[in-house]
Recover the amino acids of this structure.
């Protein structure tokens, strides 16, 4: 195995194990009542980069733009199409857990919670919580960026694909909402 193949194997293993690979998330607002979907753009972009500046440059090269309202591209009542990007900190998300609850209006919320979230590693077992209304709430974890992106696609699923992951090695993974989920 060549040196580059060994490096790729190490990076892929780190990625699969939720290692120290840094990803930045860019989320698109449906400014003007629609999403821009191209061969590079969709609702969510995850970009692997060394820092936010590098991720921002990559995002712009893909067609992401900022200050769309100010520059006259986006609807001023809806707001800018793109956010400025945030680091996806899976370590913190997994330490604190990502809160999820059964869809409101479902009669058997416990069954719905299990159907929607039991495939994920459970951080905190679900329980009934009553504040303003009664909810069945628990917390989950994500094993890697792909699982996190899949979760968001299943939750929102507004475009096809709903997310694209751009890796430093040039690989691009498309994530689509799974049929029959939520």
């Amino acid at each position: 195995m060549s040196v580059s193949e060994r490096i790729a194997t190490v990076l892929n293993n780190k990625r699969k194990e939720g290692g120290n690979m840094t990803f930045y998330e860019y989320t698109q607002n449906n400014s003007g009542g629609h999403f821009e979907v191209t061969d590079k753009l969709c609702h969510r972009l995850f970009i692997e980069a060394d820092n936010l500046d590098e991720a921002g440059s990559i995002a712009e090269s893909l067609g992401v733009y900022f200050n769309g309202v100010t520059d006259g591209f986006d609807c001023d009542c809806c707001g800018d199409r793109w956010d400025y990007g945030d680091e996806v900190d899976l370590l913190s998300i997994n330490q604190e857990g990502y809160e999820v609850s059964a869809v409101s209006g479902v009669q058997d919320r416990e069954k719905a919670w299990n159907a929607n979230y039991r495939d994920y590693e459970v951080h905190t077992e679900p329980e009934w919580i009553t504040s303003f209304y009664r909810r069945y709430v628990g917390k989950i974890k994500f094993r890697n960026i792909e699982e996190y992106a899949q979760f968001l696609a299943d939750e929102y699923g507004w475009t096809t694909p709903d997310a694209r992951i751009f890796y430093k090695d040039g690989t691009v993974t498309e994530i689509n909402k799974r049929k029959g989920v939520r």
